[in-house]
Amino acid sequence: MFQGKLYKASKLGPLLFCIPENKIQQTLFEVHEGDCGHHIGGKSLALKITRAGYFWPTLMNDSLRYVKKCDFFQKMKVVPRQPVAEMIPVLCLIPFSIWGIDLVG
């Protein structure tokens, strides 16, 4: 605690300011969707907040939960591209017959 504010020591640089509980949602919104936000994933969001110098004990879980609720992020989610039915290979030997390759002799 320094001058009445709670901080956490960081291995990478300066002290991290501990955000009060009533400011967590505003901080997540500003970093994720604010002026400089670009709808990043949960882990990236937590790391970006940490690099900005902020921290709270449930940062990673709150970031992941916030991103899962983001409507824009859900629309841009990777859609699995799996075939509807099992794929059946088609054998095409025509190129080899045109070339006239004799593999045996």
From TrEMBL:
Gene3D superfamilies: 1.10.340.70. Residues 19-77 form the Integrase zinc-binding domain. It comes from the Eukaryota. Pfam families: Integrase_H2C2. InterPro entries: Gypsy_RT_Integrase-like, Integrase_H2C2. This is Integrase zinc-binding domain-containing protein. It comes from Lithospermum erythrorhizon (Purple gromwell).
